[in-house]
Amino acid sequence: MNRKKLEGLIAAPFTPMQSDGSLNLAIIPAYYEMLKANGVKGAFICGSTGEGVSLSLNEKKAVAEAWAAVAKEDADFIVMPLLGGTCLTDCKELALHAQQIGLDAISFTAPFYFKPASVDMLAKACSEVASVVPDMPFYYYHIPVLTGVGFSMIDLLKAVDGLIPNFAGIKYTHEDFMDFLSCMNFQNGKYDMLWGRDENMLPALALGTKASVGSTFNYAAPLYYQLIDAFNHGDLKAANALQQQSIDMITLLGKYGGIATGKAYMKLLGIDCGEFRLPVKNMSAEQFEAFKKDTEQIGFAEFSSRLQPAVNV
């Protein structure tokens, strides 16, 4: 396969929910326009941020169809769904569905209940899913903090090289820079390595990464493009300061309960994605007011994404 490597920021969108916990897909056109207005290059849907593990098979299809509809005429915006990992039958059905509705690539993570006993078993699982759509780029999603599957990704690349023709690369959400660099250099940079830790973007840039997938790109893409620009111009002092702003913003995620805090940031932008489903804890109304004050202290409004003006990147 002749594949073009991805570049720029790819957001991991939240799945919008109604107050009763059902899908609110009517928001997605405005969501897409907001991402485009802030220079985001694609959407990694139904991932961790998108609550993929909390969605039914039919709901994942509905979310994918909504994103396919808004991006179908946009060749510069890629849409990639996370298929899942635990049930390979569902993953294969979702892969075929992604192909049928015209999505650009697919992603798969490690089975995390019955975990693969070796990297070769993980490679076989990847192969089984990737083989049903041999013309679609396949990305493995490495996030051992959630899956509990922590094989070195350089070993996975060695296992899949030649085994899976449409294996395009890895979404790397981990902090092992030695492993990440080894993957980037494997087979003369054959595979697309997508960085997945927003709070560690600066060191990943130093290793040469060109594309990142992250949740905070939903609401703070301008901050990261400033960081990238500062790094590219050799202004490490400014890049350092911008990365610290990112860290300060991400620290509030932990302070207010974790991943669901991202939807609170979206609410501040004017895109209300509702709440996370159980068992994720959402903040109370009182906590949201305290959260707003904290965002003022870190100057969130100064670097957050905008709903209207386009950003040239």
Automatic annotation (TrEMBL):
Compartments, record wording: Cytoplasm
Q: Known InterPro entries for this protein?
A: Aldolase_TIM, DapA-like
The residues annotated as the active site are 141, 171
Q: Does the keyword Hydrolase apply?
A: no
Instruction: List residues binding pyruvate.
Output: 49, 213
Q: Does the keyword Lyase apply?
A: yes
The GO terms describing molecular function are: lyase activity
- A single cellular component GO annotation: cytoplasm
Keywords from UniProt, A to Z, are: Carbohydrate metabolism, Cytoplasm, Lyase
Say which family it is in: Belongs to the DapA family.
In Swiss-Prot or TrEMBL terms, this protein is called N-acetylneuraminate lyase
Species of origin: Lacibacter cauensis
